[in-house]
Amino acid sequence: MAHSLSAKKRIRQNEKHRARNRARKDIIKDETKAFNAALTLGDADVATKALGELVSTLDRVKHKSTVHPNTAARKRSRLTKKLNVLKSKSGSKA
Description:
Elements: H1 5-41, H2 44-63, H3 69-93
Helix pairs in contact: 1-2, 2-3
C-alpha cells in the first residue's frame, strides 16, 4: 500500500488512465468486428464506411498514446488489404 501522497495520487491517476485506455481499445474492437461482419456479408459499401470510422478511431487513439503508432498503422494496412481483396472480387464478377 502506498504511503506518500504522491504515490496515492499516482494510483488514482493510473486507475483513470487504465479505464480510459480500456474503453478506447473496446471501441476499436467493436468497430473492427463491425468491419469484419461487413466483409463477411460481402457488402463493400458498408465495409468502406466501417473502415473509415475505424481508421479515424485508430488515428485518434494513436495520438493519445493508448496504442503504439506502428500498431495502428499495421491494423489499418491489414484491414485495407482485406477491403481491397473484397472490392477486386466484386469488381471481377461484374
